[in-house]
Design brief:
The complex is a heterodimer.
Chain A (H helix, E strand, L loop, with lengths): L8 H34 L12 H7 L1
Chain B lengths: L1 H10 L4 H7 L2 H17 L6 H25 L1 H4 L17 H22 L2 H22 L6 H21 L4 H24 L3 H5 L4 H4 L2 H24 L5 H23 L2 H6 L3 H30 L1
Classes of the chains: A mainly alpha, B mainly alpha.
Chain lengths: 62, 307
């Protein structure tokens, strides 16, 4: 009697793909987090490009 | 029948490696390298995290353009020996999936580059992707032998994007780096077309070798190689140049022009006789030419920083 194979080749392939996508997503989150830290620490004008012109914020940021 | 449907789905299920191949990693490496040099030789610096992010998103944009090119050109790629094993023509990735990945990554890379650096760099990346996909892939490639001459602009943008990411503006040096790759592209691809022989003809792509013949293509290679020389020396003698760039310009241009003269003098019978050895050598030399030229700009920038 042939038993049920726990991991079909398809599952291995899917696992490697899901792992790759997961690593890419984690890397993306990490780079966005690192960028945020750098820009906040430097004191960039965070609302300077809002849809409403706010000279006070621009002046404070520059 | 459900069982049949499942087995069909299994056959076309892509791996992560197929997704990576969809982004044309070899082309991406040249894009990343030239963009990195553009960023590092610029007279302004980014924080290391911003620089890494900029490179990542420029690479992602290049990959997205590659995926869209592979989606649109699947019919051509499936005929050409050089490209038939790519994920879309070989059936490993569905065309619709390639298109979705290309569009998604294009938007993501442009927005993220804008947030990481500045809006001008993001705009230039958007122009590059659009130019490669719409102007080159959809419009020029199947219509004119000037396809890779005009379309070469897409490959020439990366060092300019790197420069703009660092400085926030376009300058003469950025334009000259653009011009160097722009003038280099036709000899590089026409050499490839010479030794790929019937590939482009079979696929119905009007390369210069197909529309005007191989002798005309050889003359054009020489003409563009000669036009490349002044651009190369202008850069080497300008603000981003230096001893390494000048030495590279002298040696690489001598080598490249000599190679182009050799190609121009060869007849098709001679080329066939030795298996297109000179054409293949010229193609490899063209890759060295660009990598070493940009490597020399980088070396001069490092020396300037150190002193």
């Amino acid at each position: 009697m042939s038993g049920i194979r726990a991991t079909h080749e398809l599952h291995t392939r899917r696992f490697s793909r899901n792992l790759g996508v997961a690593v890419a997503l984690v890397a993306f989150v990490a780079i966005v987090f690192a960028l945020t830290v750098v820009k906040v620490k430097r004191g960039d004008p965070l609302q300077g490009f809002d849809h409403v012109v706010r000279p006070g914020i621009e002046a404070a940021g520059s | 029948m459900p069982g049949l449907a499942i087995s069909t789905a299994h056959e076309h299920e892509p791996t992560f490696g197929d997704y990576v191949a969809l982004l044309k990693p070899r082309v991406m490496s040249l894009v990343v390298f030239t963009a990195l040099v553009g960023l590092l030789v610029a007279p302004a610096s980014l924080h290391a995290v911003e620089a890494v992010a900029a490179m990542l998103f420029i690479a992602l944009g290049a990959g997205a353009a590659g995926a869209l090119n592979m989606w649109y050109d699947a019919d051509i790629d499936s005929v050409m020996r050089r490209t038939m094993k790519r994920p879309v023509p070989s059936g490993r990735v569905a065309p619709e999936e390639a298109r979705a990945i290309g569009v998604g990554l294009s938007g993501l890379s442009v927005v993220m580059l804008g947030l990481a650096t500045n809006m001008l760099a993001a705009t230039l990346l958007a122009v590059t992707i659009s130019f490669y996909v719409v102007v080159y892939t959809m419009w020029l490639k199947r219509r004119t032998p000037q396809n890779i001459v005009i379309g070469g602009a897409a490959g020439a943008f990366p060092p300019m994007i790197g420069w703009v990411a660092a400085t926030g503006s376009v300058s003469l040096e950025a334009c000259l780096m653009f011009a160097l790759i722009f003038m280099w592209t036709p000899p590089h691809f026409w050499a490839l077309a010479l030794f790929m022989r019937s590939d482009y003809e079979d696929a119905g792509v009007p390369m210069l070798t197909v529309t005007h013949g191989r002798t005309a293509a050889r003359r054009h290679i020489l003409a563009y190689t000669l036009l490349l020389v002044p651009v190369s020396f202008w850069l080497a003698l300008g603000p981003i140049g230096g001893p390494a760039s000048l030495a590279a310009a002298v040696v690489l241009n001598l080598m490249f022009v000599w190679g182009a003269f050799q190609l121009c003098r060869r007849t098709e019978a001679v080329a066939q006789g030795d298996g297109y050895a000179a054409e293949k050598a010229f193609f490899r030399a063209s890759l060295f030419y660009l990598f070493l030229h940009f490597g020399a700009f980088l070396a001069d920038a490092v020396v300037r920083q150190a002193s």
